[in-house]
Amino acid sequence: MAAFDLPRPAFMDDEDLRMFEDMVDRFLDENADPSAQRRWREQGFVEQDTWRKAGEAGILGVSIPEAYGGSGLDFRYDAIIMEKQGRKNALNFAYSLHTTVVAPYIYRYATPEQCREWLPSVVSGETLLAVAMTEPGAGSDLQGMRTTARRDGDHYVINGQKTFISNGHGCSLVIVAAKTDPGAGARGISLFAVEVDKVEGFERGRLLDKLGQEGRDTAELFFNDMRVPAGNLLGGGEGQGFRMLMEQLPKERLVIAWQAMGMMEAALELTVEHCKARKMFGGALFDQQNTKFKLAECKTRATVAKTFLYHCTERLLAGALDAATASMAKLFVTEAQAFVVDECLQLFGGYGYMLEYPIAEMYKDARGFRIYGGASEVMKLLIARSI
Predict the structure, then answer these.
(1) CB 238 within 8 A of CB 354
(2) Is 214 a catalytic residue?
(3) Which of 13, 111, 208, 321 is the most buried (most CB within 10 A)?
(4) Which of 214, 252, 265, 361 is catalytic?
């Protein structure tokens, strides 16, 4: 598209990737059109049938190893899906959380037997994944969590509460972070794979009423003497949870940045189209000097953000993406997203304030990107530690 036509670097541009991109385009056009997106927002979640269709299309297993039913592809394919979702305003479908963020906790830290049992249904869309870290009193500060897990024979008894859990309403397998040694700080955190339909003491709270991203179900989870088989402890022993979280968070932050990038591009495209069609003072709004200056600044920020994002993606593929650089990506791209979407909405004038226009939905949806996955202020702290 003319408004944002940044060429892809060589590592992101080959025939297989282009064919995959065409397939993703078709899937989203057929299953995430504006009527479906409106329905998701009104009901507060994406239907299980959509997840199954994504599984049939091969989207849910794109980066899951072939041994467990997936395609075993690399992060470039995940990035294409996320960018396409952003461009089509379809980010309420939490594909990346399911496949790119949560599934790695299983295929990297569960036993091969557990992977063979759990992952095929994750790939097919029959099993929906979530990760439960955040608590009412512990968000970005994971060490402050109060959920506990106490060993009792062949089980762990888990008590506590989690909040702001995406996919919390529909998940059937959730990775739960809990303190197995409450006095050990970060070294006392462990992760458990919980099959929610096979345990007692698991309770879902209400769907939370959010400022934006209304179609991405978000719920509270409660654990009341929830008994989980000891074999569902991930990582081979107690106290490994914080290490596993820190290993996976750089990729999660890059995931958030890619989603923000896709939305930024979509906002810029929509706004250029609107400004060229909108008449003002005897000519097109696009021809006003202020409009051109605003769009030039937006395109510059988006171009810099995407160039850095490509750099970070290449480092991730090489196994060299460190936590500080991933934090820079999330910080810079989501802050650029906020600026661009706000400026674009302003250029829509009164129409930008109407929810029937995608730019208004983007404005709401964008606000959460600077909070979840580690707030911008936490990203700055992490970056500062590397100086």
Answers:
(1) no
(2) no
(3) 321
(4) 252
